[in-house]
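Q: For a teaching session next week I want to show students how multiple molecules come together into a single three-dimensional assembly. I've collected the sequence lines for a complex. Could you give me the predicted structure tokens for the whole thing so I can convert them for display?
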Amino acid sequence: MSDQVGTITWISGPVVRARGSKFVGMLELVEVGDERLVGEVIGLKGDQMTVQVYEETSGMQTGAPVYGTGLPLSVELGPGLIQSIYDGVQRPLPLIEEAMGSFINRGARFDSISREKKWKYIPKVKIGDAVQGGSVLGVAMETDTFEHRVMLNPDDSGVITWVASAGDYTVTDPIAKLRMGKEEKTITMMQRWPVRRPRPFKNRRGANIPLITGQRILDTFFPVAKGGAAGIPGPFGSGKTVTQHSIAKWADAEVIVYIGCGERGNEMTEVLQEFPHLVDPRSGRPLMERTVLIANTSNMPVAAREASIYTGITIAEYYRDMGYHVALMADSTSRWAEALREVSGRLEEMPAEEGYPAYLAGRLAEFYERAGYVDNLNGTQGSVSVVGAVSPPGGDFSEPVTQHTKRFIRCFWALDKSLASARHFPAINWLDSYSEYLEDVGAWWLEKTGKDWLTMRNRAMELLSEEARLSQIVKLVGPDALPYTERMVLETSRLIREGLLQQNATDSVDAYSSVEKQIRLLELALYFHERGMAIVKRGAPIHLIHDLPVVDMFIRAKSSITNEEMHKFDELKKQIDQQMGQLDAEYRS
Amino acid sequence: MSQITVQGGQEVVGVARIEGPILVVEGAANVSYDEVVEIQDARGQLRRGRVLEVGQGFAVVQVFAGSTGLSIDGTRVRFLGGTLRIPVAEEMLGRIFDGLGSPIDGGPEPLTDVYRDVNGQPINPTARIYPRDYIQTGISTIDGVNTLLRGQKLPLFSGAGMPHDQLAAQIVRQSTLGKVAGAPPTEGEEFAIVFAAMGVKNDVAEYFRKSFTESGALTRVTMFLNLADDPPVERVVTPRAALTLAEYLAYDLDKHVLVVLTDMTNYGEALRQISNVRGEVPSRKGYPGYLYSDLASLYERTGRIRTSKGSITQIPILTMPNDDMTHPMPDLTGYITEGQIVLGRELYYAGIYPPVTVLPSLSRLMKDGIGKNRTRDDHPRWGAQLYAAYARTQDVRALASVIGEEELSDVDQKYLKFGRAFEREFVNQAFTENRTIERTLEIGWNLLSMLPKKELTRVTLDEIAQYYKGDDAAN
Ligand SMILES: Nc1ncnc2c1ncn2[C@@H]1O[C@H](COP(=O)(O)OP(=O)(O)O)[C@@H](O)[C@H]1O
Ligand SMILES: [Mg+2]
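A: Of course. Below is the structure for the complete assembly, covering every listed component.
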């Protein structure tokens, strides 16, 4: 039980001041008011402490007590995280609903992971083993197929003095004992970790394996590496959430952490209702069995929104430490930045740009720094890839959150309002986006597909930027003024835009494109171009190429050819050969 | 003031400072954050307010009716010990209230002992039901390409002088639970309507009242009116009062509720004013940094929950200052709501009603409420095709304005014709015209049939075979 450490002197929204600064530490978790609402000490000055409160403060009074806990804001880590949905400070939403009904009330206190549920545990160490922080002590099956590796807390090390036999245990049952110096410590499957402190690892590795998302414009054109960081900025309605959902569904990661940070309730409900019924194309298991959800929606307390990002990334690091590839989505980091701004404003701190506190850039950097492909303390390798959505006011990318984010990510997927208006989805502008991982992941593609992906990809990008240049001319003088060779560039670019870049997330075939399908489409588009160019150079009018039935077939291939029907691409190629061969023959003479 | 249930509370005579609608009151102990207060001026008149900030021995109070006529010494402030609550009851349907929930139709206070906090509480995402049932509004630009679902929040983005009120009235009048295309309509799926006016002129409120009367809906409508000449600060409470009643009707009484909020821009103004008086650090255009969270606390009170059969659907109306969609009010609204219906001046001047500019309009939930077994199998692709074709029309128009229509290619000429017909036949419809979903789909296919089949890559070949009516050879 915690002791009273202070008395409230001032309240403004989520920020509270109290006397009693001597009895708490910076970033200590405290309980505020008679209802003991959870809060965190974010400032100490004179005899005053400043606390951000993770729950609604309506009705709170000055003079009410503040209780200390002596602990920093932490998450509970252990089996049971997967398939959970939490609020920003890791309170399980289903239990809140069970206890309080459909609306979230104040003062809910629940264990983050179940104390009752038993897990089938198999020890991997024996008495006398010397173990270090991160060492795998045993494994527990977290789902039918997911192996949860129970690790020693990174701060501990010692010699095993007792090991539980294989069997069913709760997260608080002892599974081992450890001698640390003179002390003997009982180890359970659960550990706590302060969310604002990155979990340690041995060292960073280069990021040169792509995170395959099944989204063609990402994988083929602007890939992010496993352990990399990507930003996806865009005005409202341009596709940030749909893209993030698509990545959460189809990315080849073993664990997904999805943070709904200050966004819609319905979107979290959609994930909750959809993921248990969608099957992971790799494991054949429901997608929910690899997913952890954090939902601190726009109408939930703003300070807990600020914490949600840290809660999520700490959970991601924990699975990375086991040797897994984890992908984390944060939708939207702008709402998190606004939470910082709101709290900062209440503290009357000196604002920098657009009212954001001066430490905004530093916080963003700290967050994206926690992405990485690493050698873990226990010798395994794992990664955390981070994809952060950015919601720039008015869709203007020159605003502070977008600009600072750009400094800390290496992959930029720029959503474009006019593409979204024309229902070109994903509305990622291929001219404004970039990936700095291209060279890094080239070798992977070569090994995986046997094809020179990078050269092809760059060639396709060349055509697209050529198209952009030519379109400017067309806008001024109409297409007829262009020579056929340039019109051919326009034809192929259309093929690439409509047949490759466009991808309908709601179409069951098109939603996910295998790597093979992606490379086949790319290759065929370029092949079409090469043959077409040869023909128009011989003087064939461009409309003959435009009117070839294979154009339509190609554009429809994304949704008519499934990932299991690669042979149909041979058929498509044959069609190109036949139809273009005919033209070629006609104009050869 | 009779509906405030909390009794007693401490009273302070005299205030330390008055600034705009804000009072600083000293000498009160144990004041709660967000507590309701009752303020009595020197003449004994009462007004209400609420606590925005509390410190040791002082409280910052926002006065809903404004501070005109209040004096430093002659003002008494009584702290009522609880947050702002309003009574809720089914019999409030058919009645008219002011912006704080007091009757202004000459009728009595609602007879009930159910009082609810106007701030509401966030819905737990696990308790929600994802919306899937579409509402047939009878308006092609909505049903066809920006379908509205029960439990959705879909604002109208408009500008001064455009017919957003007519459109909202038409939606309210015509809305029924959607059926699969071709299915016969059924009776009795009527909405309860909660209407909140913030800072609009009396003729706007009167227009809606008349429209509700004419359609015979008046008995299922509750109106909360804060008009242009009512105190601006009160506007901060008005939508909250309306939504508090809506939640009761939907989640306690299982009704389907349609909430119309107009004009949210005036609501934003009121927030900005309070924030500026308090000297808060502004973000964009002087609006407070918490504008997004504040708007979300209104818009997110939409939806369906598992423990009730009812639903809340919201249609907020915003007039965009200078028709600028990047202004903080439409911008942050668009980030929170599940799409937007955008009215445009060009169409309006061209005499098109409703002047819905299709390209920037969006219904995010549409994909989940249409298609096979909901409207018709081809609907999603048909919609994407119409959008793609109409977007292309815009490019062609731009080109035509440079090189002249005659110089356009044959296909581009067809797009030009398609675009005109789309606006005149699909977008344009009479204020009294209530189109079925199959009629809307049919008009769309007629238009698409003006284009060569080859251009229609968003729909399937089977759909072309079934619905395409054009003479492709001539194309
Ligand atoms: N890849 C896609 N396929 C199909 N529709 C999409 C795709 N991306 C976006 N959309 C459409 O755009 C709408 C808005 O996307 P959303 O992700 O909600 O935008 P944001 O999060 O940027 O506000 C969606 O409701 C959907 O209709
Ligand atoms: Mg979104």
